[in-house]
Amino acid sequence: MRRNMKMFWDEMQRPADQELNTLKKMIMMPGKLKQHLLLRFLGFSILVLVWIYINGGLVPFFLKRSILPEESGSGTRVLQYFTHADNDGVKIRWAHGVNTKQALERALESAEINMVEGDVMLKGQGTNARTLIPMMAHLPATAGEMNLDEWVDRVLQTPRKGFKLEFQTMDSVEVSLQKLHDMKNKIKVPVWLHADVQQGPHGDPPKVEAIRFIRTIQRLFPDCTISLGWTSGFHTDLSQSGYTWEMVFDMYYLINKYSLERKVVFSVRSAFISNSVPQLKWLIDNTGGSILVWHSPENIPNVGDLMYISYKFPPPQTFFDLNHEEMDAFLQEHRHNSRPKLDPLVLQRETVVFRPEAWLKMGFHIQIHSILPSTEALVLTNKVVYVVSKTKYQASDKIKLMGRIQFLNPKKLEAEKGVTGLSIYVRPTEYIDYERIVGIRCFLGIDGQIEVGPSHMDNVPDFRRSQNITPGSMNCYRFTVQNTDKEIVFTVNVQHECNTLRSSQPDQQIHAMLTVPLPQGIPDGEFPFIIKLEDSKRTAVFDELTIKYIS
């Protein structure tokens, strides 16, 4: 026995002895030792890089899926909970309209599904037999197979499944949230609570009141993600349809009023994406929220629209509930390489969009909502604020300020002739006081009046000139200003559509042009451009604003 053990030990020692002898020889030859150590280091480094590439980090992928946040609960962010998504919303998979026992079991058994969505209404909804029992069903149904308690209990029995409840009526909200409140201690998964609270494209008035919905959540079940949407409908021609600026402004003020920033998801229908990206991106930029893109069975998602969303919205703030295998596979493959598949009009618009980093806020911009910039648009709501270009420019016929403005009237106020509109100041020498900007003023009135003339330039002869054009029903105009060494050239075009992607095409003709010679005494040098809303009776939306060099 001892002899066998000795032979075994000798065999084990032999490779180690050989390695030790090799190292001793290398010590005697420093060049060989360095080469040996370098090769081993390189080999180890390559193995580590391959490991990280395969697993997306040092943690093995098969363990990563099972790692939970230290503290999980109903308010846990989906991307924090489902760590396999690598902070990318496209990797979260949804099961939509899961209201029956069969559909629920199918969703819970699927390893691919992360979030399970069901619709909530009261039993007997819309009938004389209505009760206070929340059921899982979608209007116009009046009953369902499962009540809310059974549905939630079954979801919670399955590991690693979050859930979303979509409320069909206001009277189902409070009783449902009271039930969630009572079981909150055992809910350790992400919970989204959704309702369509505002009227959207082709949609009916919402059945859930926005203020009551939010207040009830904040009172009974605040530890959740709030999902808000717009009602929508189907139409044979959706080419002109989308989420308008008025729709997103109403949502913005709602979010701001109840301090829901960064805790809200906006649910948007894929059929309206093409004409809504500037509006939705502006909303995300100014609330810190996220969006979830969904589609209805009668609308197959458009590849170009999905790429448009992928190109413009950051992965951690963008979720897709497509319920369409081919489109979902396409999105998974091209999500991070979307530019080659964009509509050419998207790239055309990229050349003229507002760049917040190129402009300074001026005036009393501490007033809330007065200046609302985004990578897609600039919104001005008050005459006490304005923006100034960071770069100053020499008078030249090679430089052109270009923009497109839409005047909105949320307060339903009458316009004042010659006042309600936009001022563009050229060669300003004083502009600290918003009421007394000294320079050349190019004015564009909502009524179609355009004018170029001096502004508080006391020692210069009056060179004012004006013209009138017929305004369009959209109250939308595209303008250019050229500040040459001898004259100001101010052009204005009436836009008969302003919200569609196709409207970003360049104009083919000029509707109005003022060419105004400059008298002696006009200051020369380098000056910024200034953009200012002249009164507070309108909201000004600039979805194009750029300064271009003309070759």
Automatic annotation (TrEMBL):
Coiled coil: none annotated. The chain crosses the membrane at residues 37-63. Residues 88-325 form the Menorin-like domain. InterPro entries: Menorin_C, Menorin_dom. It comes from the Eukaryota. Belongs to the menorin family. This is Protein FAM151B. It comes from Potamilus streckersoni.
